[in-house]
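Incident log, structure service

09:12 report received: a user says their structure output differs between two submissions of the same chain.
09:20 pulled the input from the user's history:
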Amino acid sequence: MYDVTIIGGGPIGLFAAFYGGMRQMKVKIIESLPQLGGQLSALYPEKFIYDVAAYPKVKAQDLIDQLTEQAMQFNPFVVLNQTVENVVKLNNGHFQLITDKEVHDSKTILITAGIGAFEPRRIKLANAQAYEGKNLHYFVKDINRYKNKDVCILGGGDSAVDWAMMLEPIAKSVKVIHRREQFRAHEHSVTELLASSAEVLTPYQLEGILGDKQVEEIIIIHNQTAKSLKIPLEELLVNYGFVSSLGSIKNWGVEFKKNSIIVDSAMNTNVQGIYAAGDIVIFKGKVKLIATGFSDAATAISSAKTFIDPKARLQPQHSTSLFEKWEKMKV
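09:34 re-ran on a clean worker, output below:
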């Protein structure tokens, strides 16, 4: 029996596990992927993140490594490669979490599943799939692959712009192709992109892919004039975003608004004993950033702590005092 079981081992789940340890709770993490880290590890481990406090910039995997080290100080029990398919609330108020492999028992549950299961939004061209795994990519695992290469990036969001800025110093050339005049990325990032050596082509959209064993050229068409261009390239990076699915979570009895779990200011869902934090939640004023997700996680853990032990303080002691108390307990 665990005090809290965290569903999702991404950055928010890892920080929640750490904070649960600080509150002297027995913590379990269940993650459906074969490793901790969520999207950051699975999709863009080499990508820089700019909006985490105290880091001017940090690589996604480096952030995950630091969060993992922080969480593992308290030895949470980690379960990988398991997907929670159902949650049952027992008569005593505790929960059973039924995965595709076994059953887990817990006093409370914290859902930190981000956007749920995800996969990249793929190019809708008949021959595109044949180039996947060659030089058509939906995310970057090894940035060195692009060194001294002619790179084309499709997309206009943060990932497209951030990758353009990361690849621009090492690639032979970088072209960013977006179907709209305006980018969805952060304003500062777009300003940096426009001031860089990267070539920006807007408003163009992909019309065709040419090449024998790998992509050699793409055809793009101007959305207003219908003028087409052939762009030679060595690497094609597609950043059209991701298609996500919350799967069975919607059947657990928690209340949703669109694809987000409704919580109050204490991260309570409508089911007593189930909490949620991070990108999966919605409440008035919610900003979906990793930085704000850390705050959600700490609030949710403190709420779960007082739910289990009504005598516990919602507002904990200073972290130094808590950590010193934990160190003494280990001795």
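09:41 both user submissions now match this output. Likely a transient worker issue. Closing.
09:42 reviewer note: The chain has a mean pLDDT of 92. Residues 2-118+242-330 form a domain with the FAD/NAD(P)-binding domain fold (CATH 3.50.50.60).
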